[in-house]
């Protein structure tokens, strides 16, 4: 079992969620967060003098999506996330894949992949 964590641009969240649902990735958790990568993000506000309107922000709004899945589904999930979020620009986000040793459904005490079904 794996945990796939994607940190994406906030404005791509709904399109990403729709793509995940279309690929039958229904169980997910999401969080709104503030963060940044190596470089501060710069944004230009619609202004006639762009040099005066460029602002640097210490943090920008992002979304974290977490999905616990079987190992055989990881590549398909990654392709789905990339299809919406990969623009080639800084700030596109990150995807982390980490192993999950065990999962237990509290209600039934089911373990392993059965606990995710």
From TrEMBL:
<dbReference type="GO" id="GO:0005524">
    <property type="term" value="F:ATP binding"/>
</dbReference>
<dbReference type="GO" id="GO:0030234">
    <property type="term" value="F:enzyme regulator activity"/>
</dbReference>
<dbReference type="InterPro" id="IPR015867">
    <property type="entry name" value="N-reg_PII/ATP_PRibTrfase_C"/>
</dbReference>
<comment type="similarity">
    <text>Belongs to the P(II) protein family.</text>
</comment>
<dbReference type="Pfam" id="PF00543">
    <property type="entry name" value="P-II"/>
</dbReference>
<dbReference type="InterPro" id="IPR017918">
    <property type="entry name" value="N-reg_PII_CS"/>
</dbReference>
<dbReference type="GO" id="GO:0005829">
    <property type="term" value="C:cytosol"/>
</dbReference>
<dbReference type="InterPro" id="IPR011322">
    <property type="entry name" value="N-reg_PII-like_a/b"/>
</dbReference>
<dbReference type="InterPro" id="IPR002187">
    <property type="entry name" value="N-reg_PII"/>
</dbReference>
<protein>
    <submittedName>
        <fullName>Nitrogen fixation nifHD region glnB 2</fullName>
    </submittedName>
</protein>
<dbReference type="GO" id="GO:0006808">
    <property type="term" value="P:regulation of nitrogen utilization"/>
</dbReference>
């Amino acid at each position: 079992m794996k945990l796939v964590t994607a940190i994406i641009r906030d404005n791509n969240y709904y399109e990403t969620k729709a793509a995940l649902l279309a690929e039958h990735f229904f169980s997910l958790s999401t969080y709104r967060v503030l963060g940044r990568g190596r470089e501060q993000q710069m944004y230009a506000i619609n202004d006639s003098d762009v040099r005066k309107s460029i602002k640097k922000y210490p943090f920008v709004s992002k979304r974290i999506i977490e999905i616990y899945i079987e190992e055989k589904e990881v590549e398909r999930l990654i392709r789905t996330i990339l299809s919406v979020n990969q623009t080639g620009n800084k700030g596109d986000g990150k995807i982390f894949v980490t192993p999950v040793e065990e999962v237990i459904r509290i209600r039934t005490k089911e373990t392993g992949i059965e606990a995710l079904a």
